[in-house]
Write a structure and sequence with these properties.
Elements (H helix, E strand, L loop, with lengths): L18 H18 L3 H7 L6 H7 L17 H14 L1 H21 L2 H13 L4 E4 L15 E4 L5 E11 L6 E8 L2 E8 L5 E5 L11 E11 L4 E6 L2 H35 L1 E2 L2 E2 L4 H30 L4 H25 L11 H13 L4 H13 L6
Helix pairs in contact: 1-4, 4-5, 4-7, 5-6, 5-7, 7-8, 7-9, 7-10, 8-9, 9-10, 9-11
C-alpha cells in the first residue's frame, strides 16, 4: 500500500481538492457504483443508452452543472471536472451524454441565446426533461467545420429554411431540440431546431465498435422551416461553436483519466488475485513496471486537469491550454487502458472486465472534439507562431 492508502493516488492529489469538491465527487462516484457499474456491460453489449438515467442525472445536478442561473446548478469548473472523471470511470457513453447536454447544447443557449430562449429551454434541460443535441460536424466537414455545406436562408418575413446534413451527432434521435450550425449570408450562425420540425430526421449510426452505450446519429435537414426567433442572436462565426467545443474538451481531459483510473484499478486487483507459476501476477517485475507506468500517467493527467480547472475558475484560462489536456490525457488514457487489458490476458476481451471497453470508447473520445492531429497543430501554432493547418 502507498502512504496515501490509494494505489492510484501516489501523490495524494485528493489533497488538492476542498472538502465540498470531494463530497460532490463522492456523490457522483456513489451514483456510478449504484446505477452504472452493475448494468454497463449489458448496455454496451446490446448498444443501449439508458434513457431512464437522464432525470436521475438531472436530480443530481449533473446537467449544465457549470452554468449559472435558469435552474442550472452553478458548480465550479473543478467540480464539473471531478464529476466527468467519475462518470467516465463508469463509461464514456454516460459522460458523453452529460457533455453533449450541458457543455454543448445548454452552453450554446446559455452563451448565445436570447433571454426568452434561456428561460424556455434551460430549466427543463437542467432537469433532464428536455434533451438537446449539437449539430456541427458534417459527413465532409469534421476537423474543418469552416467548410460546412449546411445552409440557412432567410425569407422576406424573417423566417429561416435550413438544408443540409450532419453526422456523428450525439443524442440526436432522442433529442427534443437540436442546436444546428449553418452557413448563412451573414456567416456561420446557430439555430435552435425542434426535432419534431417537418424535414428534420435523425438516424442512429449502427453498428459501432465504440461508444456502444451511447447514441450518435446522422441528421438530415430537408428544407426545415424555422421562425425568425429560432436563431441564437449572439452567435456569429465559428467562435460560437468553438467556444462550446472548448467546454466539452475541458470535460474530456478529466473524463479520460476516469477511464484510465478504472482500468488501472481493475488490472491491479486482477494481478493481485491471478496466480501464475505459483505466485500472483503482481509479484512479477514486468507486471509492476506496467502498473507503475499507469499510475504515473494517471497522476500527471489529473494534475493537468486540476491546473486547467483552477485556471478556468479564475477566468484566466487560454483556450490553447485546453488542447494540452485533451491531447495528453486522451493519448495517455487509451495507452493505459490497452496496457491494463494485456494484464488480464484472454479474460481481458470479455465484458466482465472494463479496460478493453474503455479503450474502445476512447477511440471515439480521442477523435471527437478535435483529433490528436488537430490539437497538435493548435499547440504547434501556439509554440511556433506558424499556421500549419493548410
Amino acid at each position: 500500500m502507498t502512504t496515501t492508502g490509494n494505489p492510484s493516488d501516489l501523490l495524494d492529489l485528493d489533497g488538492l481538492f476542498s472538502d465540498s469538491e470531494r463530497e460532490f465527487r463522492d456523490t457522483v462516484r456513489d451514483f456510478v457504483d449504484a446505477r452504472i457499474r452493475p448494468n454497463i456491460a449489458e448496455w454496451y453489449e446490446n448498444a443501449v443508452f439508458p434513457v431512464d438515467l437522464v432525470p436521475e442525472m438531472g436530480e443530481l445536478g449533473l446537467l449544465g452543472m457549470h452554468l449559472e442561473g435558469y435552474g442550472c446548478p452553478g458548480r465550479s469548473a473543478v467540480e464539473y471536472g471531478l464529476a466527468a472523471l467519475e462518470l467516465e470511470a463508469g463509461d464514456s457513453g454516460i459522460r458523453t451524454f452529460v457533455s453533449v447536454q450541458g457543455s454543448l447544447a445548454m452552453s450554446a443557449i446559455h452563451k448565445f441565446g436570447s433571454e426568452e430562449q434561456k428561460t424556455t429551454y434551460l430549466p427543463g434541460m437542467a432537469k433532464g426533461e428536455i434533451i438537446g443535441c449539437f449539430g456541427l460536424t458534417e459527413p465532409t466537414a469534421g476537423s474543418d467545420p469552416s467548410s460546412m455545406a449546411t445552409t440557412a436562408h432567410r425569407s422576406a418575413d424573417g423566417s429561416w429554411t435550413l438544408t443540409g446534413t450532419k453526422r456523428w451527432i450525439g443524442l440526436a434521435s432522442i433529442a427534443d431540440i437540436a442546436i444546428i450550425w449553418a452557413s448563412t449570408a451573414e456567416g456561420i450562425r446557430g439555430f435552435i431546431v425542434p426535432t419534431d420540425s417537418a424535414g428534420f430526421s435523425a438516424t442512429p449510426i449502427e453498428p459501432k465498435l465504440s461508444m456502444r452505450a451511447s447514441i450518435q446519429c446522422d441528421i438530415t435537414l430537408d428544407e426545415v422551416r424555422l421562425p425568425a426567433e429560432a436563431i441564437l442572436p449572439d452567435a456569429a462565426g465559428l467562435k460560437g461553436p468553438f467556444s462550446c467545443l472548448n467546454e466539452a474538451r475541458y470535460g474530456i481531459m478529466w473524463g479520460a483519466m476516469g477511464a484510465a483510473r478504472d482500468s488501472f484499478e481493475v488490472a491491479l486487483r486482477y494481478s493481485q488475485e491471478r496466480m501464475q507459476f505459483d505466485k500472483p501476477l503482481a509479484g512479477y517485475q514486468l507486471s509492476q513496471e506496467k502498473l507503475v507506468d499507469m499510475a504515473l500517467e494517471i497522476q500527471k493527467g489529473i494534475l493537468i486537469a486540476e491546473r486547467t480547472g483552477r485556471l478556468k475558475d479564475a477566468g484566466t484560462l487560454d483556450p490553447v491550454q485546453i488542447s494540452v489536456g485533451k491531447l495528453n490525457n486522451c493519448r495517455e488514457a487509451i495507452a493505459i487502458c490497452r496496457e491494463a487489458r494485456t494484464m488480464l490476458g484472454g479474460n481481458g476481451i470479455t465484458l466482465e472486465h472494463s479496460p478493453l471497453r474503455h479503450a474502445n470508447n476512447l477511440e471515439s473520445v480521442r477523435t471527437y472534439e478535435g483529433t490528436d492531429e488537430v490539437h497538435t497543430l493548435i499547440l504547434g501554432r501556439h509554440i511556433t507562431g506558424e499556421q500549419a493547418f493548410r
